[in-house]
Amino acid sequence: MVGISRDDPETLRRFREELQLPFELQSDADGAITKAYGVAWPVIGLARRVTFVIGRDRRIKSVYSSEWAPASHAAHACDFLARNG
């Protein structure tokens, strides 16, 4: 599992340490990944909060979006993986 954010690498390093996250966080400071996955808010260009489950075949298996319930993202991904391997 990898988290991707528009934050800079140092901010992500501190965030990961503070929350003791068991996965890597990668910076998308230039917005290339945000643009490629089409998850930027129109007009303002900030990244929306979206979780993708991507299979070993590199295809998107599940998409979950919620701005107001960030904790639900991990639960959704884990539930999807439990049901679909």
Describe the overall structure.
A hairpin with a 5-residue loop joins strand 3 and strand 4. The protein has helices at residues 9-19, 32-36, 71-84; strands at 2-5, 24-27, 50-54, 60-65. The strands form two sheets. Strands 1-2 form a two-stranded parallel sheet. The chain is globular and about 35 Å long. The chain is built from three helices and four strands. The longest helix has 14 residues, at 71-84. The protein has two domains: 1-48, no CATH class; 49-85. The protein has 85 residues and is of the alpha+beta class. 2% of the residues are buried. The protein starts with a strand and ends with a helix.
What can be said about this structure in brief?
The protein has three helices and four strands.
Shape, principal axes of CA atoms: globular
Number of contiguous helices: 3
Mean pLDDT: 89
What is the ordering of alpha helices and beta strands? EHEHEEH
Low-pLDDT runs = none
Structural class per helix/strand content?
A: alpha+beta
Largest sheet: 2 strands, parallel
Strand content: 15-25%
For the record, give the distance between the C-alpha atoms at the N and C termini, rounded to a whole number: 14 Å
* Biggest sheet: strand arrangement: 1-2
Total discrete domains: 2
Output the radius of gyration: 13 Å
Helix fraction, binned, reads 25-40%
Number of strands: 4
